[in-house]
Specification:
Low-confidence stretches: 67-72
Number of strands: 0
Number of helices: 3
Order of helices and strands: HHH
Strand content: under 5%
Mean pLDDT: 75
Radius of gyration: 13 Å
Largest sheet: none
Distance between the termini: 25 Å
């Protein structure tokens, strides 16, 4: 599901980093990403895919990681 929309996700991430810091786009995007990741992970778990933790915990780690790795 996320893989199908990867170019859009990458473009949104890049625009959030290009925005001035005071606009708060990175924080808003991080919060939104975490929710989207959590829903996607819950969907995967319901279909039998193993996760290293609960969907909310894994989503929080993924959201933070995607921001860190995107800023390089």
């Amino acid at each position: 599901m996320i893989r199908d929309h990867l170019p859009v996700i990458v473009a949104l991430m890049q625009t959030s980093f290009a925005a001035p810091p005071r606009e708060g786009r990175v924080w808003a995007s991080l919060a939104g990403d975490t929710g989207a990741f959590r829903e996607h992970l819950a969907w995967l778990r319901e279909r039998g895919h193993p996760l290293p933790g609960g969907p909310a915990v894994v989503a929080a780690a993924m959201g933070r990681w995607s921001r860190c790795s995107g800023s390089r």
